[in-house]
Amino acid sequence: MTQTPSASGVRAAWAAGRAARNGWITVPDPHLVEVVASRGVLDAVTLDLQHGLFDRASTAAAVRAAALHGTAVLVRLSAVDAAEAGFVLDLGVQGVIAPMVDDVATARALVDACRLPPLGRRSYGPIRTAFGGADPVAAAGQALVFAMVETAGALERAGEIAAVEGLDGLFVGPGDLGVALGLGAAQNREEPEIHDAFARVLAACGAAGGRAGVHATSADYAKARADDGFGLVTVWSDLPALAASVDASTW
User: Fold this and answer.
1) Rounded Cα gap, residues 178 and 173, in angstroms
2) Which listed residue, of 33, 71, 81, 226, carries a Cα 20 to 30 Å from 234's Cα?
3) pTM for the whole thing?
């Protein structure tokens, strides 16, 4: 019987008192997803629909591949889009991360897209969430919803955004945020302005009772951010990892 993705990966890590370890995937190949999920070291994998190459069919195949190994799946949406959010949540993903959420109105639109009434306006469609006798309404209530902080405006309004009912937290995209702050594009960055942004996001989430997440491309950097208090940290990303492996293969 086909399994649905675990509803406990990220939340189980939090219940155990540690940050959830996340993998980031842009290549829409179910075999790659299954290899990553089968290692048993990640609490979740995130499928990137914004900058990755996923379409609907490859997204569904990737969700099934991860589910075979009990690994929870998150999706980075291409935008705050109700149809796309509903589609991936109907597949049974554990949560969504929405890019470019600059203000309260956009955050509320995200909640509307991801939550069933009365909190939101998501349409009820248990495509995979009812498999095995599961309760799709309960699954919907457990879905995680993160708004990305990637712009100066989002950083300025982080406290207001984090307080929007129905959001579980904020997720920092250091690449776009660095560009927005005039620092250029980079990952695993150490500029004082970025660390100040991290502190502001952590404080905003703490005040709202939510969690903070952050993207990274190295385990060491992710561990440092977990030590800072981030609850969801990307510890591995497919394209940087593949590139580094190829670069290291020559002599």
Assistant:
1) 8
2) 81
3) 0.94
HSE toward the beta carbon, residue 216, CA cutoff 13 A: 23
pLDDT for 7 beyond 70: no
Residues pairing with 232 in the sheet:
20, 213
For 111-126, write each residue's pLDDT tens digit: 999 999 999 999 998 8
Give the position of tokens 């703490």.
Answer: 206
Domains of the chain: 9-246 (3.20.20.60)
Active site residues: 51
What local confidence, expressed as pLDDT, does residue 129 receive? 80
